[in-house]
Design goal:
This protein has helices spanning about 10-20, 35-45, 60-70, 90-95, 110-120, 130-140, 150-155, 160-170, 175-180, 185-200, 205-215; strands spanning about 1-5, 25-35, 50-55, 80-85, 100-105. With about 220 residues, it is an alpha/beta fold. It is globular, with a radius of gyration of 17 Å. About 40% of the residues are buried.
């Protein structure tokens, strides 16, 4: 059973998401939070698998809460799925940078919401090619200076790992990368996992951010 924590300052929205989420036989809501501080507290108490985190909340917002959650080594197994009204929000990129596993618009269809929770719960990142492209175009044109530890990690990547990280950064799935490089999807996943370990990326979403911030991957030019 996938355990979910809902974090949104509007009770009506939380109630709606609860109905949608609990319609799935394999998902249950274990707690609800009205702000970021409560989300962090309840996450430590209930240890959910996934937190549906609204970005814009009064007091401690979703971004600050995400940063605190992903920075706590005792909560490594807790995944954050960001919910936002505006999908191309600079705060979405920042949430991914600090460790969120993906994002969804609040207008998401019920089936997409359930599927997203399952994807994040199993440790994958919810970052579609379209979302990746928008994030690149809007927020990665002036990348921050990479931390020395990240740069050192990039130096440890093999040629194949570099190649796979670049393709991940362009939004390709394991299956698509496998087809392009004539590898098995399992081999691609193994290389990706090793790359994440070397650069200390929490998941594929954060690996994408690191790839663009450090210049390992280049944003595609507009035509």
């Amino acid at each position: 059973m996938i355990r979910v924590l809902l974090a949104d300052d509007q009770a009506l929205i939380r109630a709606g998401f609860r109905v949608l989420v609990e319609a799935a036989a394999d998902i249950t809501v274990v707690a609800e939070a009205a702000d970021g501080a409560e989300a962090v507290r309840l996450a430590r108490e209930t240890r959910p698998d996934v937190i549906l985190m609204d970005i814009r909340m009064p007091g401690v917002d979703g971004l600050s809460a995400t940063r605190e959650l992903t920075g706590d080594p005792t909560l490594n197994e807790v995944k954050v799925l960001v919910l936002t009204t505006f999908e191309l929000d600079e705060h979405v990129f920042e949430a991914l940078r600090v460790g969120a596993s993906g994002f969804l618009g609040k207008g998401v269809e019920p089936d997409e919401l359930v599927a997203a929770i399952r994807v994040v719960a199993r440790g994958d990142a919810l970052l579609s090619p379209q979302a990746t492209r928008h994030l690149i175009e809007q927020y990665l044109r002036q990348p921050a200076t990479p931390a020395p530890a990240v740069t050192a990690g990039l130096d440890l990547l093999t040629k194949r790992e570099n190649e796979i990280v670049r393709l991940i950064a362009h939004g390709l799935t394991n299956d698509e990368i496998a087809e392009q490089l004539y590898l098995s999807p399992l081999t691609v996943k193994t290389h990706a996992n090793r790359a994440m370990t070397k650069v200390a990326a929490r998941d594929r979403a954060q690996l994408v951010v690191i790839a663009y911030q450090t210049g390992l991957a280049e944003a595609p030019s507009r035509k």
